[in-house]
Design goal:
With 224 residues, this protein is mainly α. It has one domain. The chain is built from 7 helices and 2 strands; from the N terminus they run αββαααααα. Strands 1-2 form a two-stranded antiparallel sheet. Helix 1 runs antiparallel to helix 7 and helix 4 runs antiparallel to helix 7. The chain is globular and about 60 Å long. The mean pLDDT is 89.
């Protein structure tokens, strides 16, 4: 097991365990009625953060724009994948990173539908058009963290100019932080929604990197 695979495995396991622990805490600790929620976990902490930060329509609309940017990134990689498929006439010749990204995007969609339609953990602290809306986890934060973080690997491969590559990496990392912080400042999510999104994103992203590095190491062994 090479260093990259080993490190990715440790990171993946850490995020996986932390996400499970946090979810259990959210479902069992300080659970009570709060705002528009019949059962809100970590209620005291969530209420304190929300009342301290308040609401911001600026951050709400700004993070909405970042969400559209993340979707644009998905579309760009989808187009690259289709072009490679048409050009090479075989899915086996499409970059493994692109195929991996496709799987990651499907996972995001499944998580969104599951927590939005199947199991609603809690509702937003504010009403959306006079109605309650599912809040856990923050789908915008999950989307941005996963899409921008996984895009780094393929961007490094596709871009050969060092200056552009380094600045693009910085930009993508900054966008992840901006989305997580901005979504919290917007006041449309509980603090626990943001934390859960970051942890779940960590599981998906580290799992993606682990798979890619493992396939690289396997290919290297086959060529030796």
């Amino acid at each position: 097991m090479n260093k990259k695979v080993k490190t990715s495995l440790i990171v993946f396991a850490s995020f996986f365990v932390l996400s499970i622990i946090f979810t259990i805490l959210l479902l069992t600790v300080d659970v009570r009625e709060s705002f528009h929620n019949p059962k809100l976990g970590l209620a005291t902490l969530n209420e304190k953060v929300f009342t301290t930060i308040g609401e911001s329509r600026f951050w709400y609309y700004f993070t909405q724009i970042l969400g559209y940017l993340a979707i644009l990134v998905i579309v760009c990689f989808a187009v690259i994948g289709v072009i490679q498929l048409i050009k090479n006439k075989s899915i086996k010749k499409v970059d493994k990173e692109i195929i991996g990204l496709g799987i990651v995007y499907v996972i995001i969609a499944i998580i969104y539908v599951f927590f939005e339609k199947v199991v609603v953990v809690n509702y937003r602290p504010i009403l959306e058009d006079g109605a309650v809306a599912a809040s856990f986890p923050s789908s915008h934060t999950l989307l941005a963290c996963v899409v921008f973080s996984t895009a780094l690997l393929e961007a490094k491969k596709l871009i050969n100019i060092k200056f552009i590559k380094e600045n693009l990496v910085f930009l993508l990392e900054f966008l992840v932080i901006l989305m997580a912080g901005g979504r919290l400042l917007s006041g449309v999510h509980w603090f626990s929604d943001i934390v859960a999104s970051v942890l779940y994103s960590g599981v998906i992203v580290s799992g993606y990197y682990l798979a890619m590095y493992y396939l690289d190491s396997k290919k290297e062994k086959e060529t030796e």
